[in-house]
Design brief:
alpha/beta
Amino acid sequence: MLSVCMTTYNGEMYLREQLESILPQLEPGDEMVISDDSSTDKTLEIIRSFDDARIKLLTENRFFSPIYNVENALKHASGAILVLADQDDIWRPDKLALIRRQLGGKTDRPALVMLDGDIIDADGQR
């Protein structure tokens, strides 16, 4: 089982596209843990609109700190593989497959997979 852990705070601008890039990569037993830190925009509405049972949404948090928000998401994850996601990333369609392949199913010991990315602007241009 794999857990994608994402934190949010007023992330409505890119959140829909982000979730659309991650959710299709999750397998049925995987989960997406989203810890929201007091968003006042449409962040929670966007997340709930996906109506996906694999999403575990943690609300009512008042951390006002990205560090504590990440910690909260990690504490609620149950997967043997933990993958961190920022609220404004758009994932390549093979990202989770690559992570699974690199780990080779070995989750009995700590391992780290680091991936490169592309920097894009608000219009999706490199």
